[in-house]
Structures are given as C-alpha cells and as structure tokens.
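Issue 218. Parser rejects a valid record. Input:
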Amino acid sequence: MNTIRKREELGCNVIRYVVDAPIIAAHRKPGQFVIIRVTDHSERIPLTIADANPDTGTISLIVQSVGKTTREMAMLKPGDAIHDIVGPLGRPTHIQQFGTVLCVGGGIGIAPLYPIAKGMKEAGNHVITILGARTRDLLILEDDMRSVSDEIIVTTDDGSYGTKGLVTDAIRSLVSGGTHIDQAVVIGPPLMMKFTSLLTKELGIPTMASLNPIMIDGTGMCGGCRVTVGGEVKFACVDGPEFDAHQVDWDSMIRRLGTYRTAEQAAAERYDHQCRVGLDAKESR
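Output the parser choked on:
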C-alpha cells in the first residue's frame, strides 16, 4: 500500500497527490512514469511522476479526473492508500546542456513537463517555458514552472489570462524576435503537439514530444500504444514515452487515441451510476 500524504486541488478536476513510494522516489528520472491500481479491483493506468523527494520517500502524481479510474482516484484523501504503484517505467528524458531549451506545455501536459524543465535547468540550460490553456481556469502549475524557468510565457485561447492565442503564436513571436532555441520539448494534447512540431520543424528547432497520452497498460503487452516514428512501429511505453517529434506520424496516433473512447465513456457512466446509487442508499438510512 502507498499512503497518500497530501492532496491538492490544482484546477478544474486536476489533483496533485504526494504519495509514499520510497524506492521509486530514489530511482526515478525526469520523463518516467508509474503504473497504479487504485484498489485491488481497479484497472491499471499509467501516470507520469511529476516530482519526487528521495529524502521523504515520496512521489507526486497529478491526475485529471476524466475517466472511471481517475474519477475513482479523485475520491482519495490524505491517509488513504493507493493499492499498488509500479515503477519507475519508460525511458528517461535525454537531458544535457543544450543551451537554450524551449519547454512547451498544454493543459494537463504541463504536469509531466515540470520535471523535464527542472532537469534541463539543473543541467545548466537557459529554460524558456510556454504554457497554454483554453482558459485561465484550466491553467495548472504556473508557479512551479516559473521556479524552474528563466522566462515564461502564458497563452490562453480566450485571452482570459496571459497572451491571447496559441502556443504556436508565442513560438513564432520568440523566433521572430531573435531568440535562438537549441532544443524544444512539447507535451500536451495531441493536436497541440502535432502543430507545434510542424512549426518547430519549419523553424529548424530539434524537438522532443512525450506521447504518454496514448499509453494504456504501460508495459508494452497490450499493444495499444503503438505509434509510427520515422516509418517504424514503436511502443510509447517501452520505447518512449519521448520521441523525435518531427518523426512521429501524428495523424495515425490521433486516430488510435479514439479506439477505446466508447468503452471509456461507458465505464465512466457506469461508475457514476454506481456512485449515485451508493450515495442514495446512504442517504435513505
């Protein structure tokens, strides 16, 4: 059992948990993830290790409550326990002193971006961060990202905070203003990663993308995370989760993401119904 030490609401349906996992905390590296089961009857899901503290033996997991299992996890409080956590898994991010590193995060993708930006900063890079969200209410980890960035730009689709526009608009503005970028890292919604990578390819900026949104069981056994990179089939969980963004077949990856959408929606609806039935039963006593 992995006891939850802290629970923090970061935004709309987004929660940060600090959880006991001393072995994982001692060995994890930026970019790696864990597989969790909330209870002994839960499905297995992958979650990026957003941070770790070897001294306290804890790791941080950031969860967006959207499906059955993440809704189940969102009910947990400090003192509760996650049934099991396995990791660290996946290949760590390649971190070195590149020079100027651009870190681009969108939505919940800002969570796995944080440890990478932190690692890049600790390696001696000048870190420029661009954070994008549809609206201010959906922006997470701004203060955390500021603490590991030399410069930060916030964009919102509706202009409710920061600069109105997309992350790609901010990238063009940086480059046209004379900023030289040696390496970029992008994590966020698949469409955002696709169009960011198309732009950085046009601008000649080497770019890594994390494909953790496509993972299912995280071990390579299910085959659900197959993605074509440079014309070859890769598994995001064991060969990644990071790949050369300019080599990813984004269109096929985005189609694959929709494979289980109907089943996921049905499972979430069943869980919500069970919760309502359970709540009604308690209230009737």
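Fixed in the parser; the record now loads. The radius of gyration is 19 Å.
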